[in-house]
## 1
Amino acid sequence: MKINVGLLAYGMSGKIFHAPFFDKHAGFNLYAITERTTKKAQKDYPSLISYDSIDELLNDESIGLVVVNTPNYLHYEHVEAALKKGKHVLVEKPFTPTVKQAQELFDLADKVGKKIFFYQNRRWDSDFLSIKKVIESGQLGKLNELHIRYDRYRSAIGAKDFKETAMPASGLIYDLAPHMLDQVISLFGKPLSYRKVLGKNRENTQVDDYFFIQLSYPDDLNVTVCSSLLVANPQKAFVLHARQGSYIKDRVDSQEAQLQSGMKLGDPAFGIEPAGEEGVLTLMDKDDKRMDSLVPSIRGSYLPLFDAVYDSIVHDKPYPVTREDILTQLEILES
């Protein structure tokens, strides 16, 4: 069974994170796209139908799955419209600005008998897969603390108004925290408690460009996620300390850069990190002697996310990113 897919936009998200994977996947047919002005998608995918408006695309009864990859503040409106037209929906992060809006869409999806999927692709980054494997191996023993950072240096105000203007789901907290919180929630579930700090540090910024979130878990595990747009010398992205050692890893996932350079998913090098980017695992023996080793990263691929969407629609299998995960994430973002 092939499912016809419609993308609501063909910016970076549509071009890099969605179209190549739907085109590659045997269960999907990359069928249609909305392009209001410049028509670019058909140059990459000649068989695509390019609609002038979202309404035109949603009215196409042959489309079974719609990808909502429009600006953040429009997600609620476009998911609601797609569900009412009888489509399953895959939604970019953040799902909605608020918990209330998310629950309203869940209720509507249940009413019309369609499914909502959350595009949390960073669960399938090579760097995150690697630290997840180290944690699940148990060799570090009881975990004490995990720090996740996502830093950039972008002192200028960006051109995308929906990210840089004070409106629902704007600012760095709604841009990068959904990725980082989802990674934490996928590992450890809902925290016992949390606290959040926001900052505005760039000249003339209207929105937060710094956040720090501390999450407390059972057995005295503390997790922090932090991001800033004014870090000239980025720190290690993943720092994990535990009773029997530590694991430290730079943020490296090759998929985005490879796709931007024109590499195809079938290339043998796709998803493989460059040599020298391995994480460092430090273990302490019974005499407290330190032993360091390099841990090669797992190959990254977002294709399992698309497999999971297909299997949920066709075979009714559970999707790995749950509604509860998203509600927990939004509760923290909105707080």
## 2
Amino acid sequence: MAKRPLNRYRPFLLLGLFIFIWKVVPKSVQLTLHKSFYEFQAPLWIGSSKIEDLHSYWSTRTNSENKLIEAGIQLSRNNHELRIQLDQVKLQQEELNSLRSLHNLSPINNYTYETARVCKRDLTSWWQEITIRKGDNHGILKNSPVIFAGGVVGKVKETYETTSTVLLITSRHFRMAARFENDPRPVTYIGSINSSFGNPKGIVRDAPSDVIVTQEKSQKLVSSGLGSIFPEGINIGTVHYLEPGTNGLFKAGKVLLDKRLLYLKEVSVLLPKNK
């Protein structure tokens, strides 16, 4: 009879023993074990992601000829529109370069883009991370900015041989310098607690008291270029209201982010050209 209570609590005793041993193990050993365990799992995540891509490819191949023709026509239209937009961007870039040269400002195109597929998502309320299929083997650097068509995705948290983890902009542990699109004064963006299926959001703080934002007059929030991580002017999200902060000197509000952050399949990592 005495053994039965002991057997009941054995799992908790083993767990407590494991936690104690883990605490006394040197930090360098912990990091090595963590990285080794991650590298062991990485091929499974990459393989699963590639199988998903292959399934999507064969699903497209099985479409009827009419659907493929319609898709081709729509693609042609999209290409035509993109060519027009690209010409406009080139003209704007030339104008921007001439203005920066006139005012002796440093160039902003000091980055190269490394595109990577997403192979794993961890979008719980507490952890907002994704894993991409490129790492040390492609020159990915820790703390590199990560973006997509909708703006800021996050920053590289850790790099491994063939994969990297990205801390998302929605995470409570994410923070960056920002500004409103038409206001040069810096503000602070931080992530918020996000659910797995709700609309992604964040928080803006330290906004000057004279900044007016309402439902009828919303403003875009962009990167400020401060902090030496993100280039200036990358979209973060939209702010629909501001209210006085706790100290009464500055304002704070909610930032609505791009919904596509929940369904990312591909991102771009910005790497300095002189790395």
